[in-house]
Amino acid sequence: MPKSFSEQEKNNIKKILISSCKESWVKYGYKKTSIDELCEKAGISKGAFYIFYQSKEQLFCETIKAVQQDLYVLIEEILLEDQSKYGVVKALKAIYAEYDKSPFLYNTSSVDFTSFINKLSNEERQDIFLDSFKGAKQMFDKPFLSLCIEEEKALSVLSSLLNTIEHKDKIIGNHHEVFNFMLESLIEKIFE
Fold first, then answer.
1. Which residues contact 68 (CB under 8 A, 6 or more apart)?
2. So what's the pLDDT on residue 1?
3. CA distance 109 to 106
4. DSSP annotation string for 100-134
5. What's the average pLDDT block by block, 10 residues per block, for the chain (192 residues)?
6. Distance between CA atoms of 45 and 33, rounded to whole angstroms?
7. Could you tell me if 148 and 189 are in contact, meaning their C-beta atoms sit under 8 angstroms apart?
8. Are residues 165 and 126 in the same domain?
9. 134 Cβ partners below 8 Å, 6+ apart?
10. By three-state DSSP, how is residue 191 classified?
11. How many folded domains does the chain comprise?
12. Is 30 within 8 Å of 8 (Cβ atoms)?
C-alpha cells in the first residue's frame, strides 16, 4: 500500500522533484534524466513518484512552467525596482543569464528537447508556448512603458535578441557583452 503524505510533505516533495529535475535536465538532458535518481533525491520510492506525476513528461512540463514562472517573478521584481525601459533592459539581461544556465529553455531544436516535446499532447505543447508568450506580453503591459513600434514587432525583436543564446558558441567574443550591446542599442528604438 502506498505511503500517504501530508499536504506539506507533498509540497516539499514536489519542490524537490522540480528542483532536481531542472538540475538534471541542465546536466544530462531529458533522455538521460533518471526518475529513479530524482526519487532518491526526494526521498521517495519510484512507485510514490506516480502519486505526484502521471509520467516523466508531466514532471518536465511542470518544471519548465516553474522555471518560466520564476522568470516572470524576477521580471516583476526588477520592473518594480526600476520602472523604466532601463528596467526592461535589466530584466532581459537577467532572462538571458538564466537561459545561459538552463539550455532547455531555449534549445528547442535539439534532439533531446524534440524527444521531450514529441511525447507531449498538443494541449501541453500549446500551454508551454502560451506561458512563454504571456510572460513576454506581461512585461509590456506596464503604465510606465510606451512602445515606439508595434507590439508584435517589439516582441519579435526582443525574442530574436534572446534567441542569440542559441548561437553563443559561434559569437566572436563574450556572448553576454554582445547581447548587452545589441539590447542597449535597440532599447531606444523600441520604447519611448
1. 105, 128, 131, 132, 135
2. 41
3. 8
4. HH-GGGT-TTSHHHHHHHHTS-HHHHHHHHHHHHH
5. 77 96 92 95 93 93 90 92 96 92 78 87 85 76 91 91 89 95 96 93
6. 16
7. yes
8. yes
9. none
10. strand
11. 2
12. no
Look at the alpha carbons of 169, 171, 172, 174 in this order and tell me if their dihedral is positive or negative.
Answer: negative
Site of grid cell 512552467:
65
Query: What is the 8-class DSSP label of residue 27?
Result: H
How far lies 7's CA from each of 4, 52, 54, 85, 182, in Å?
10, 12, 18, 42, 47
Whole-model pTM? 0.84
- What is the domain extent for residue 99? 56-190
Do you know the residue count of the chain? Answer: 192
Q: Are residues 109 and 35 in the same domain?
A: no
- All 3 cell numbers of residue 160? 530574436
Helical H segments across 29-174, by residue range: 35-42, 46-52, 56-81, 85-101, 111-118, 122-140, 151-162
Pair (169, 116) in one structural domain: yes
Give Dmax over CA atoms of the chain in angstroms. 62
